[in-house]
Amino acid sequence: MGRFTDSWRSHLLVTLSGNSEGRPKWVGQIATGDNAGFFGPGSAVWTVHGGMATMVAGIRALLMQTLHPGAMAGVHDWSRYHEDPLGRLSGTIQWLITVTFADTVVAERESGRVAHFHDRVVGTYLDARGEERPYAADDPELLSWVHVVFTDAFLQSHLLWGTAIPGGADRYVDEWATAGELVGVRNAPHSAAELAAQLEAFRSAGTLKSDARVAEAVRFIRYPPLSRGMLPFYRIMFAGAVASIPREYRDMLGLKRSFLPTIWGTRLVLGVVGALLGPSSTSEDAARTRLARIAATKQLEHPSAP
After folding, report:
1. Terminal CA-to-CA distance of the chain, rounded, Å?
2. Tell me, what's the pLDDT at 82?
3. pLDDT of residue 141
4. Residues 269-291: what's their mean pLDDT?
5. Which residues, at least 6 apart from 6, have a Cβ–Cβ distance to it below 8 Å?
6. Is residue 6 in some structural domain?
7. Burial level of 305, CB count in 10 A (0-12/13-18/19+)?
8. Which of 8, 75, 175, 186 has its CA at 20 to 30 Å from residue 135's CA atom?
9. Which pLDDT does position 88 carry in this prediction?
């Protein structure tokens, strides 16, 4: 049993971080820098992104992202998700975690890396009306869509499976708007109500559509190339992600909510995964190391300060 647990934990860490120790090389940069970052301990962002529900949030976000034909065209034409799905996942995790826990200089540099990668992502697609339109990854509409669905996925998943959010949902949406602005999002939502309104605006405007590309992407997300030991746990989390998506979007994705208690099952799986990984996050540990160093330096410079 111990050997199975160790093997499963190693597979999980490689999947999430690309490293069997759970500490990819880029985590080291989170310990560098001279400020607390855009968020910090006690923030809504640290709470949400430090929770286990992020595992389900990532699945939900990827599913929802496929419904915008421009975003789907960019993934289809430029992404390497078929050849290296874990590499793409690791790249997304790197940006999310770095912006969450690093100091502002490192977070801005990482956001610049992502923006630079997006510079070459251009092409054309057929919109929901069948008209050909150009797309670019830095298009305001596409940036807004990706930001909205990711923010919504992480918020809703945490509300279902996470702990209390300091300041509530509004504070999380407001804080994470900063991350969107770092990669060029205009008019990012600053409250849960604004987030819901922007998401609904895409649907009510007839922007979203389902087609063969969406079906292919959904199939890939549903049956990813994971190890056999991880697949049963992943399938439960996938079902939980589907159950968390409002019915109007599930219908467009061609997905049905399971009759099984997937919300409860997902909570159980997240508890097991959390126990395997342990209470300590290497990224948060690195951030706290930076903060302790900054505090110690200030104390040396101003020994009489409280």
Report:
1. 51
2. 59
3. 92
4. 84
5. none
6. yes
7. exposed
8. 175
9. 57
Share of the chain above pLDDT 90, in %: 57
| Bridge partners, residue 124, by sequence | 134
Contacts of 192 (CB under 8 A, 6+ apart): 155, 168, 169, 170, 173
In the chain, which residue ranges form alpha helices assigned H by DSSP? 2-17, 44-49, 54-65, 69-78, 85-101, 104-118, 140-161, 168-182, 192-204, 212-222, 231-244, 247-253, 262-277, 282-301
Measured CA to CA, the distance from residue 94 to residue 107 in angstroms comes to: 10
Helix (H, G, I), strand (E, B) or coil at 124: strand
Structure confidence by residue, pLDDT tens digits, 44-63: 999 999 998 998 998 999 99
Summarised one tens digit per residue, pLDDT across range 247-261 is 999 999 999 999 999
Residue-wise over 82-92: b if at least 16 C-beta within 10 A, else e? eeebbebbbbe
Number of domains into which the chain is organized: 1
Burial category of 294 from C-beta neighbours within 10 Å (exposed 0-12, middle 13-18, buried 19 and up): middle
Domain residues for the domain of 133 are 2-294
Least confident segment among 114-128, 197-211, 225-239:
114-128
- Structural contact between residues 162 and 48, judged by C-beta atoms closer than 8 angstroms: yes
Residue 5 has pLDDT above 60, yes or no: no
Listed in sequence order, the residues at least 6 apart from 31 whose beta carbon sits closer than 8 Å to its beta carbon are 286, 287, 289, 290, 293
pLDDT value, residue 7: 47
Distance of CA 116 to the CA centre of its chain: 19
Q: Is there a domain that residue 301 lies in?
A: no
Neighbours of 291 (CB within 10 A): 18
